[in-house]
Design a protein that fits this description.
Elements: E1 2-4, H1 9-13, H2 16-25, E2 45-49, E3 52-56, H3 64-72, E4 81-84, H4 89-92, H5 110-115, H6 120-126, H7 130-140, H8 152-161, E5 168-173, H9 182-189, H10 191-205, E6 209-214, H11 219-234, E7 250-255, H12 265-272, E8 296-300, H13 301-313, H14 315-319, E9 322-323, E10 326-327, E11 329-336, E12 342-347, H15 352-359, E13 369-374, E14 381-382, H16 393-398, E15 407-412, H17 417-431, H18 437-454, H19 459-476, H20 480-484, H21 486-495
Parallel strand pairs: 5-6, 5-8, 6-7, 11-15
Antiparallel strand pairs: 1-2, 2-3, 3-4, 9-10, 11-12, 13-14, 13-15
Helix pairs in contact: 6-10, 6-13, 7-8, 7-10, 9-10, 9-11, 10-13, 17-18, 17-21, 18-19
């Protein structure tokens, strides 16, 4: 029997290391795999048996002796027995493309990756021209998964069309939105998929150098990425002569310094160049004048990770998932006050209610859900009347909300939504790069105005002032930091107005 216990950040935070040590003490050397994303079951112990791969969870070190005993007699008799892992309802009903390999084995084992169809997309790309690769990406309908949802193929086409001696591929792995962990899960559970996607991007546009800009709060991802890059170079999947093709692509990891604003692509480029992370004015676009003034593809982890699937299975296969202009699958991250939090990969079109009630099983507290925030700290707060909205970029835009990076944070009926609106402005105060006045000053004034409204100081006039202030930030800010901070504020005012008068806040 082969035993698996995850080494990703969430599992480690929940005690996976002590479980691994308990197995070793009992004479069992486990494979340290990546998490499958069912965080409510972590640490999840998986065991390859004659009947298939079964699971136990959540497991602690003290459970190991009894699990080992049960495996000798009747595994299903154990209280933590989950049955066949692939048949757990949370996982079995998903449509996994990007996360198809997550949790299946050692994430930095090249043999394991290749046995699971890894690098097939890269080998396909090596036989194609740059334009043919870009056409595949355009035909797939893939849009950037970092928040703006800009068509990836169009961005790549712009970089391909630029004449330059040097071009770059930059992966935005500065995942900083509240309730998000999809990027981390890729890097910790299947890092070669990101490496493969970036190499394909380099072949597509003629870039020979790539950088992964990784948030410093991800030490496990940092360690695994560096191991994976070193092994990919040794196996000739990176370097000067990829698989004997005569084509080159080099890759390095660079750590950020804890600034939320560096999730914005131009601020990220400034930081990558060794400068303070400040937003650049556009134009010029990074695709034309990006890193060190050279044409640069800037995509986030999920966008680049999807590339290997598209090249391996074909643009049409990827295009068959989703709805409208939102094609492929969405990495949904379920967090906050939720009973079953974790990573869910589904085709675009599933509703918010289906995700939160079906997969999440309601709140962890057992109280009714009051609001759901989608898209990070700049996303709108959605009341129950909007939970049947399909997860689709255009559908969410129609209700003045956004999908963003796919993070979902749930609040129960004890939440003070006026306080959440204030937090949105306060967050902007703390994280603004300070370059433009609407964001830098508007957020400070926003906190003050909300405080006056809640204190019932000239409420009517201050409400007018708050809406005017939101207009100014939305229309006048240089980037989405200030431009989208009004989204949670406006939604809280529109749907939870009683909290701003004190009528809805008696149970906190």
């Amino acid at each position: 029997m082969t035993f698996y216990i995850p080494q990703d950040t969430t599992a480690l935070a929940l005690g996976a290391e002590s479980v691994a040590r308990a197995l070793q003490t009992a004479g069992v050397e486990p494979v340290r795999n990546g998490s499958r994303g069912m965080f409510w079951l972590e640490p999840l112990l998986e065991v390859d048996t004659e009947e298939g791969r079964i699971g136990f969870g959540p497991v602690s070190s003290k459970d190991i002796p009894s699990i080992l005993d049960a495996l000798e007699t009747d595994a299903s008799s154990h209280d933590l027995y989950l049955g066949q892992v692939e048949q757990i309802d949370y996982l079995a009903s998903q449509q996994r493309l990007t996360y198809a390999r997550a949790g299946l084995g050692d994430p930095v084992c090249l043999d394991n990756y290749q046995a699971l169809n890894g690098f097939k997309g890269l080998k396909t790309a090596l036989a194609m021209t740059g334009q043919q690769i870009v056409d595949q990406v355009k035909d797939s309908g893939l849009r950037g998964r970092g928040g703006a949802a800009f068509p990836a193929g169009i961005k790549w086409q712009t970089v391909l069309n630029c004449e330059a001696e040097q071009k770059y591929i930059v992966c935005n792995a500065d995942e900083g939105d509240s309730g998000t962990f999809a990027d981390r899960l890729v890097m910790e559970s299947d890092p070669y998929q990101l490496i493969e996607g970036m190499a394909i991007a380099g072949l597509a546009v003629g870039a020979t150098q790539g950088y992964i800009y990784l948030r410093s709060e991800y030490p496990v991802a940092h360690r695994l990425l560096n191991i994976a890059i070193e092994r990919a170079e040794a196996a000739n999947f990176l370097g000067d002569n990829i698989q004997g093709s005569g084509k080159a692509f080099h890759l390095e990891v660079r750590l950020g310094a804890g600034a939320y604003i560096c999730g914005e692509e131009t601020s990220l480029l400034e930081s990558l160049e060794g400068k303070r992370g400040m937003v650049r004015a556009k134009p010029p676009l990074p695709a034309i004048e990006g890193l060190f003034g050279k044409p640069t593809v800037v995509n986030n982890v999920l966008t680049l990770a999807a590339i290997s699937t598209i090249l391996e299975q074909g643009a049409e296969t990827y295009q068959n998932f989703g709805m409208g202009r939102s094609r492929g699958t969405l990495a949904i991250q379920l967090a906050g006050n939720i009973k079953r939090g974790g990573l869910i990969e589904l085709a675009f079109g599933v509703t918010l209610r289906e995700v939160v009630e079906g997969y999440g099983q309601g709140t962890f507290s057992g109280r009714p859900i009051r609001a759901i925030q989608v898209g990070g700290p700049l996303g709108a707060f959605l009341p129950e009347s909007q939970w049947d909205t399909p997860l689709d970029y255009e559908a969410f835009a129609a209700i003045k909300a956004m999908i963003g990076h796919g993070g979902i944070v749930v609040f129960d009926d004890s939440a003070d939504m006026a306080a959440q609106a204030r937090f949105a402005m306060e967050f902007c105060v703390a994280e603004s790069c300070g370059k433009c006045t609407p964001c830098r000053i508007g957020s400070v004034r926003g906190v003050e105005v909300i405080d006056r409204i809640v204190a019932n100081e000239d409420r009517d006039n201050n409400l007018i002032l708050l809406h005017d202030l939101c207009d100014t930030m939305e229309m006048g800010s240089l980037c989405a930091m200030g431009g989208m901070t009004p989204f949670p504020v406006r939604s809280a005012l529109a749907h939870f107005s009683s909290d701003f008068t004190g009528e809805g806040r008696g149970d906190n």
